[in-house]
Amino acid sequence: MEASFDPEQNPPLHAPLLDRSSPRTGRFAAIFACLVSLLSLLALIINQTQQPFEKVQPRGVAEGVSAKSNPSLLNQVPFNWTNAMFSWQRSAYHFQPQRNWMNDPNGPLYHKGWYHLFYQYNPYSAIWGNITWGHAVSRDLIHWLYLPLALVPDHWYDIKGVWTGSATILPDAQIIMLYTGETNESVQVQNLAYPANLSDPLLLHWLKYPGNPVMVPPPGIKPDDFRDPTTAWLGPDGTWRLTMGSKFNTTIGISLVYHTTNFRDYELLDGVLHAVPGTGMWECVDFYPVAINGSVALDTSSLGPGIKHLLKASLDNTKVDHYAIGTYDPITDKWTPDNLEEDVGIGLKVDYGRYYASKTFFDQHKQRRVLWGWINETDTETADLKKGWASLQTIPRTVLYDNKTGTNLLQWPVEEVESLRLNSTMFKEVLVEPGSVVSLDIDTTTQLDILAEFEIEPLISSTTNEIGDCGDGAVDRSTYGPFGLLVIADASLSELTPIYFRPLNASDGTLKTYFCTDETRSSKASDVFKQVYGGKVLVLDDENYNMRVLVDHSIVESFAQGGRTVISSRIYPTEAIYGAARLFLFNNATGVNVKATLKIWELNSAFIRPFPFERDSV
């Protein structure tokens, strides 16, 4: 069913909540200031009888991995979360385990009709620890079936954790799984595992190589700075290569390169694939070819003309995934970025929001490269323990080289997510005037797939050089923006999450555009981490501003300009939940009208459940 927009039924509303200078904002500020003063006095009285606040190290750091908790929230006043709120937060079509903690995606692959996802998992608790490999399978990357644990910490070389790894499928269809284990002496080593029965489509049983570990930290590398081997690629000399992250002299992020002919014996090459000073420890490195025609994905071992290579690293210092595109020399095993000013760790991000530890695989079934990424919680561990689960994976995304810009990837949700689409509603050329909000009449707004295109009509001429990026959020007004959507908002706009474009006048007379998400008013709860995310996005001369937004309860994934810039957000509203959640357009620019055309689908829930072993088929 497709409905249309009636402007008489959806009159524009002026939006003082989006305007710094409105009287209502001023009155609120005065009230808030008084409240802060009273709370400060109370805190002073309480602190006289307490010990000074002690800084708490994030969970996981002492064990030699990236932070897995938000200790900065410990001194916030706990919100009184209800079970109904916790139930609403759980996603409906993103992959997550039935219960407990999950983090990095591991070893994704396609085998005998099934997509396999392995993932870092704590089978005992909703906080990080006891890390094993969870395992699930799917026919379509959307509907998932949980399987028994694939790898557990049961040998001296992985007894303190079965950490991140990657799969390599050999030409004879053998599957090689290399993963990092933490030994009984807290040393990070690389281990080999393989299916016990390659004819089993579900790959239920895995064997660990008796000669593990197959790689140990080389001289000059600390025992806790050696992790996360990539998928291997075959060089022109018939030797396999792989890379993994580390650091040198505490600040230089590096990717080591190993050669092997049998996946049991490895030779460390002199030098590194690449290094970037000032970026710190690299983990979850990914390295793969991209076709510069932008139309096809490539197997990981592809080489030759018309091919560039992408190098991605997850930066332990910042918890951000960065990438760059460049040239790989398979003779010297060196990689050089196209643009040194946007090298790995200092330029492009895979995702500008809450996102980490991404990993791709080449899907030989549909000839595409598929990207997974981990989205963790931004609430407290106390809340996670109460609800019994933590973290989810993004919707799998296809990745291609953007041959229009020649500088970046294009990421897009896999086509299978469209199978969840239910009824749709069209909104054509909806006028949104400066400082106004327009309600969009959608029955259910917590599970949506939104395609939106915006045209701007300047009302004034401006040549002022505007400096900034996403600013202080959607309240930060400029001539041409911000404008976009308010998702998961309540009717009074007391809770809302703006997703928006912010074009700014540049010194050369052009517009420099930022794509942003503002979480600062997404929830009234204080014990939730909220910030403004975003980055630059290229909008070419023949393009209107366009975005695609996937809304799934507490996870929102936003794609600008066909996926040039992507932002993932976690939001925890207290009032804008269930039937109280609304969707709006907004324009907080001072000098343009915005016309918006949208197509919005409500989405069904995915079937994500245990594998029905009692049945013959699924």
From TrEMBL:
<dbReference type="Pfam" id="PF00251">
    <property type="entry name" value="Glyco_hydro_32N"/>
</dbReference>
<dbReference type="InterPro" id="IPR013148">
    <property type="entry name" value="Glyco_hydro_32_N"/>
</dbReference>
<keyword id="KW-0472">Membrane</keyword>
<feature type="transmembrane region" description="Helical">
    <location>
        <begin position="28"/>
        <end position="46"/>
    </location>
</feature>
<keyword id="KW-0325">Glycoprotein</keyword>
<protein>
    <recommendedName>
        <fullName>beta-fructofuranosidase</fullName>
        <ecNumber>3.2.1.26</ecNumber>
    </recommendedName>
</protein>
<dbReference type="InterPro" id="IPR050551">
    <property type="entry name" value="Fructan_Metab_Enzymes"/>
</dbReference>
<dbReference type="GO" id="GO:0004564">
    <property type="term" value="F:beta-fructofuranosidase activity"/>
</dbReference>
<keyword id="KW-0378">Hydrolase</keyword>
<dbReference type="InterPro" id="IPR018053">
    <property type="entry name" value="Glyco_hydro_32_AS"/>
</dbReference>
<dbReference type="GO" id="GO:0005775">
    <property type="term" value="C:vacuolar lumen"/>
</dbReference>
<feature type="domain" description="Beta-fructofuranosidase N-terminal">
    <location>
        <begin position="53"/>
        <end position="85"/>
    </location>
</feature>
<feature type="domain" description="Glycosyl hydrolase family 32 C-terminal">
    <location>
        <begin position="416"/>
        <end position="602"/>
    </location>
</feature>
<dbReference type="InterPro" id="IPR001362">
    <property type="entry name" value="Glyco_hydro_32"/>
</dbReference>
<comment type="similarity">
    <text>Belongs to the glycosyl hydrolase 32 family.</text>
</comment>
<feature type="domain" description="Glycosyl hydrolase family 32 N-terminal">
    <location>
        <begin position="94"/>
        <end position="413"/>
    </location>
</feature>
<dbReference type="Pfam" id="PF11837">
    <property type="entry name" value="INV_N"/>
</dbReference>
<keyword id="KW-0926">Vacuole</keyword>
<dbReference type="InterPro" id="IPR013320">
    <property type="entry name" value="ConA-like_dom_sf"/>
</dbReference>
<dbReference type="InterPro" id="IPR023296">
    <property type="entry name" value="Glyco_hydro_beta-prop_sf"/>
</dbReference>
<keyword id="KW-0812">Transmembrane</keyword>
<dbReference type="GO" id="GO:0005975">
    <property type="term" value="P:carbohydrate metabolic process"/>
</dbReference>
<keyword id="KW-0326">Glycosidase</keyword>
<dbReference type="InterPro" id="IPR013189">
    <property type="entry name" value="Glyco_hydro_32_C"/>
</dbReference>
<dbReference type="Pfam" id="PF08244">
    <property type="entry name" value="Glyco_hydro_32C"/>
</dbReference>
<keyword id="KW-0865">Zymogen</keyword>
<dbReference type="InterPro" id="IPR021792">
    <property type="entry name" value="Beta-fructofuranosidase_N"/>
</dbReference>
<comment type="pathway">
    <text>Glycan biosynthesis; sucrose metabolism.</text>
</comment>
<keyword id="KW-1133">Transmembrane helix</keyword>
